[in-house]
Amino acid sequence: MSRLCEGRVCVVTGAGRGIGREYSKLLAEHGAKVLVNDLGAAADGVGADQTPAQLVVDEIKAAGGDAVANYDDVSDFKAAKRMIDQAVQTWGKLDVVINNAGILRDRMLVNMTEEEWDAVIRVHLKGTFGPAHHAAAHWRDVAKQTGEPVDARIINTSSVSGIYGNIGQTNYGAAKQGIAAFSIIAARELRRYGITVNCIAPGALTRLTENLRERTEEEKKQGDPFWIAPIVTWLASTESKDVTGRMFEASGRILAIAEGWHRGPITEPIADPTNLGPVVERLVAKARKNAGMDGMDLD
């Protein structure tokens, strides 16, 4: 088998279980050296346990790969730097950061607490910013020292809940939409250093999603977290150097590009708000409907 990531050093956050575990294992199978980060918290972000990350490292090593564990909290800015520094100190370089860690605190908006909002925004949004910031700063310094662009990757994790919108997840969806915008902007900023930034909206059954509703056996097969790992492994490779600023939907059912906001119907600006009613009505009638959770227009 051709190994796409031979010798590349990858940091994967939230890698002790589910999708992150599959990322780490397939990257290692393709020759990557993997820093397996996982705080080991429960699905709601509470607690800590070193076991999940260490078990993934043990699996990779048993299969002949190279990996180390990291137990830092991605939402801690200084801890995120320790994570990046650990990868560089262990293997002498860094090539890829995959921001995958996340939690859920689902609640309808009228019932959501401030703490439930803050916890989800902190882990997802700040937990993406920290590792990405420290990795990008490292790569910028390398590019300046060598006079050559690096060949580096940041791969972030959004969600169909964020890009399309799911009831009961205003906190999670807001964080994931924020990560989508973060990825597009970071891709534009970092291209000159040789850094690509892409985003994944995964569809998989993990401890965060498996209990949301009943699934058929076929849906369970399609929800295997493994199906997200191939596109992430390819994006982590040198083959993907010309792909940046994109959102990939990935599951055992589809692989697709999710297209972002575009300007729809337009008109001349109107100063008198009393004249806006019929104008807005015409604009809305012409505009494409927002997508549902399947990515298609709502009825």
Mind sketching the topology for me?
Blueprint: E1 9-12, H1 18-29, E2 33-37, H2 51-62, E3 66-70, H3 77-91, E4 96-98, H4 114-146, E5 152-157, H5 160-165, H6 170-190, E6 195-203, H7 217-222, H8 229-236, E7 247-251, E8 255-258, H9 276-286
Parallel strand pairs: 1-2, 1-4, 2-3, 4-5, 5-6, 6-7
Antiparallel strand pairs: 7-8
Helix pairs in contact: 1-2, 1-8, 3-4, 4-6
Structure commentary:
By secondary structure, this protein is α/β, with parallel strands linked by helices. It has 2 domains: 9-258, 3-Layer(aba) Sandwich (Rossmann fold); 265-299, no CATH class. 41% of the residues lie in helices and 14% in strands. It is built from 9 helices and 8 strands. The chain has helices at residues 18-29, 51-62, 77-91, 114-146, 160-165, 170-190, 217-222, 229-236, 276-286, and strands at 9-12, 33-37, 66-70, 96-98, 152-157, 195-203, 247-251, 255-258. The chain has an 8-stranded mixed sheet with strand order 3-2-1-4-5-6-7-8, with helices on both faces. Strand 7 (247-251) and strand 8 form a beta hairpin. Helix 1 runs parallel beside helix 2, helix 3 (77-91) runs parallel beside helix 4 and helix 4 packs parallel to helix 6. The radius of gyration is 20 Å and the shape is globular. It starts with 8 loop residues before the first strand and ends in a 13-residue tail after the last helix. The mean pLDDT is 92.
Order of the strands making up the biggest sheet? 3-2-1-4-5-6-7-8
CATH superfamily of the largest domain: NAD(P)-binding Rossmann-like Domain
| CATH fold label of the largest domain | Rossmann fold
Low-confidence stretches: none
**In CATH's first tier, which class of the largest domain applies?**
Alpha Beta
Q: Quote the distance from N terminus to C terminus.
A: 46 Å
Specify the biggest β-sheet. 8 strands, mixed
Instruction: Write the CATH architecture name of the largest domain.
Output: 3-Layer(aba) Sandwich
* Classification by helices and strands: alpha/beta
Helix content: 40-55%
Strand tally is 8
Q: How much is the average pLDDT?
A: 92
The topology string of helices and strands comes to EHEHEHEHEHHEHHEEH
Number of domains: 2
Number of helices: 9
The radius of gyration computed from the alpha-carbon positions, rounded to a whole number of angstroms, is 20 Å
Please tell me what the overall shape is. globular
Strand content: 5-15%
